[in-house]
């Protein structure tokens, strides 16, 4: 057995011992919210396709027509092959839905956070993040090489303390939170966070992956309604509600 195999076996054994070893279960969709796993019909409560748009006849028809016209697959990244006209149209329509000037589509929610966070902050900057923020916000924070401070879930006093202590020694600062928390379904106090962020010259970014299901604009609505002056940069993100869209980021003009 070579070192790679030995390593793999030891790692899998350790994961099994801690009951952390994951396996994939073949699960076939059978129409709206119903699936079949190991021959058992089940109702799925874990999909992100809340509105069942993946099954909407107009969505399916548009996907078939686009495939017939343009073929399947992107070929390469749009920076390399050029921007496909469908991206421009999709981003225009998403910006309209979100009430923003523009939007940028990413391949997935995870990729959006990996891309956006290090674009905004880097070494020498500060990130203050809710302890229950999705793992990909934390991964984006780690990738950015910023100094990261974690605040107790939705605890505004703790956010205030951390910014009062750390903000002055960093050039830029970014406050990160989910808009609707993915595991518990509770909401971040976005308006209050925006006040605190603005008072400390800190940008606020919300992961709105689950926000768009209950409001088309998601957290962007809170940003739009909040009194000025606001934080300097306002981002909202939404994730797919159909099979077609992965994730967007959008910013409202000041
Ligand atoms: C709040 C939040 N952000 C990001 C993600 C990652 O999104 P994706 O599965 O599209 O990569 C998830 C996934 O469930 C999520 O709940």
TrEMBL record:
Pfam families: Aminotran_1_2. GO terms for molecular function: 8-amino-7-oxononanoate synthase activity; pyridoxal phosphate binding. Its cofactor is pyridoxal 5'-phosphate. Signal peptide: none annotated. Residues 41-216 form the Aminotransferase class I/classII large domain. GO terms for biological process: biotin biosynthetic process. The keyword Transferase applies. Keywords: Acyltransferase, Pyridoxal phosphate, Transferase. It comes from the Eukaryota. SUPFAM superfamilies: PLP-dependent transferases. The keyword Chaperone does not apply. Belongs to the class-II pyridoxal-phosphate-dependent aminotransferase family. PANTHER family: 8-AMINO-7-OXONONANOATE SYNTHASE, CLASS II AMINOTRANSFERASE/8-AMINO-7-OXONONANOATE SYNTHASE. This is 8-amino-7-oxononanoate synthase. It comes from Geodia barretti. The lineage of its organism: Eukaryota, Metazoa, Porifera, Demospongiae, Heteroscleromorpha.
């Amino acid at each position: 057995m070579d070192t790679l195999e030995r390593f793999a076996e030891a790692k899998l054994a350790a994961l099994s011992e801690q009951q952390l070893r994951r396996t994939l279960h073949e699960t076939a969709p059978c129409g709206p919210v119903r699936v079949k796993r190991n021959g058992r019909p089940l109702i799925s409560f874990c999909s992100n396709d809340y509105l069942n748009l993946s099954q909407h006849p107009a969505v399916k028809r548009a996907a078939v027509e686009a495939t017939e016209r343009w073929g399947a697959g992107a070929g390469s990244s749009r920076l390399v092959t050029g921007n496909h006209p469908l991206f421009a149209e999709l981003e225009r329509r998403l910006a309209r839905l979100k009430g923003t000037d523009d939007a940028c589509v990413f391949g997935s929610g995870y990729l959006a956070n990996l891309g956006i966070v290090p674009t905004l902050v880097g070494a020498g900057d500060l990130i203050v993040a809710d302890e229950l923020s999705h793992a990909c916000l934390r991964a984006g924070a780690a990738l950015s090489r910023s100094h990261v401070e974690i605040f107790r879930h939705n605890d505004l006093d703790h956010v205030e303390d951390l910014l009062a202590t750390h903000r002055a020694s960093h050039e830029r600062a970014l406050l990160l939170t989910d808009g609707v928390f993915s595991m518990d379904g509770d909401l971040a106090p976005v308006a209050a966070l925006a006040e605190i962020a603005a008072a400390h010259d800190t940008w606020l970014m919300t992961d709105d992956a689950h926000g768009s299901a209950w409001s088309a604009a998601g957290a962007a609505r809170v940003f739009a309604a909040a009194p000025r002056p606001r934080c300097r940069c306002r981002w909202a993100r939404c994730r797919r509600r159909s099979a077609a869209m992965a994730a967007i980021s959008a910013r409202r003009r000041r």
